[in-house]
Amino acid sequence: MDKSEKQKMLAGELYRPSDPEIQADIAANKEWMARYNAASAAPPAERRALLVKRLAHVGAHAVIRPPFFCDYGFNISIGANAFMNFNCVILDVCSVSIGDGTQIGPAVQIYAADHPRDPEPRRAGLEFGRPVVIGRNVWIGGGAIIVPGVTVGDDAVIGAGSVVTRDVAPGTIVAGNPARLLRKQSQD
Length: 188
Known about the structure:
Blueprint: H1 5-10, H2 20-38, H3 44-54, E1 57-58, E2 63-64, E3 68-70, E4 76-78, E5 83-84, E6 88-91, E7 96-98, E8 103-104, E9 109-111, E10 113-114, H4 119-123, E11 128-129, E12 132-134, E13 139-140, E14 145-146, E15 151-152, E16 157-158, E17 163-164, E18 172-176, E19 179-184
Pfam families: Hexapep, Mac
Protein name: Nodulation protein L
Family: Belongs to the transferase hexapeptide repeat family.
């Protein structure tokens, strides 16, 4: 049986984003984002209920401050006690996982969406995605960018404004563009 374009997208394979099923998901998510972002002054329980309706998983006491932007929502999992500040973007064409207790500064961008390096598939309108995994108790400073396929280990720190182009080991501090190891954290 042939896979649908959506199944290909979720599997990280080349897919056509113009597919009607995918476009319907994008339209539904735009409506959800409008409701969620308009609920900025609503009680936390009301915002949480909106998150639970759209995201794959929302752990206890997880907070995403509006405005928040994503492609689909249903590919995002955020752990218990995780916090995401204002104006974050997640391009979630495939899974994006954020661990328990992770703190994400304002205007952080997490990209699971990717594009072929070969110009022919790009010209044909094909795209693909690579999952992003952010571990537990991670701190990501404001304005950082996490590119497709990156895994950030537990207890890592990413400096504000960094561009993370490769995996970050647990318990390390990285910063810069591209992000480079500054040091391992001490175990006080």
